[in-house]
Specification:
Elements (H helix, E strand, L loop, with lengths): L2 H5 L7 H24 L6 H13 L4 E2 H7 L7 H10 L3 E5 L7 E5 L1 H22 L3 H11 L1
Antiparallel strand pairs: 1-3, 2-3
Helix pairs in contact: 2-6
Length: 145
């Protein structure tokens, strides 16, 4: 369905404005899809993003500062998100061995298992929902980059 039909707008000022609205609309749509997938696991997309970053650094820990820099939504409070993930036993905090002023964050085995399970489900549902070929996805990525 075209964006004009979806938001009931007959025309846009120009193609750039239309593209902007289309990107915002699509981002919101994908966000709702991800939220629905994550809901049964009782984690938010921001928490999922932290787990995904920590899986990428595993077995090495990460600092909260590094997590903040690598997050998709950089407005999130990474320290608060880490606290929530600690309470769910998905990550642990420990004093950095090189600098006692820093705190290292490490994903637990429980966290690794959960992120693996969620990632498979997200990948399958997003691939189906977006419906682009690999070639089309590459082209879209190039345009967005």
């Amino acid at each position: 369905m075209k964006i004009e039909e979806e938001i009931k707008q007959k025309q846009f000022v120009n193609e750039l404005i239309k593209a902007d609205v289309n990107i915002m609309f699509t981002a919101s749509w994908l966000s709702r899809l991800k939220t629905d997938i994550l809901k049964p696991y009782c984690i938010s997309f921001q928490q999922f993003n932290i787990l995904r970053i920590l899986r990428g650094t595993y077995p090495e820990p990460a600092t909260v500062k590094m997590l903040t820099k690598r997050m998709v939504d950089r407005m999130s409070n990474a320290s608060r998100l880490v606290d929530k993930l600690c309470s769910k036993e998905l990550v642990i905090r420990k004093a950095c061995r090189d600098d006692m002023r820093k705190v290292d964050v490490l994903i637990t085995e429980k966290g690794l298992k959960l992120i693996e399970q969620i990632s498979k489900e997200l990948e399958a549902k997003i691939t189906e929902a977006i419906g682009l070929s690999t070639e089309e996805a590459c082209q879209l990525n190039e345009l967005l980059d």
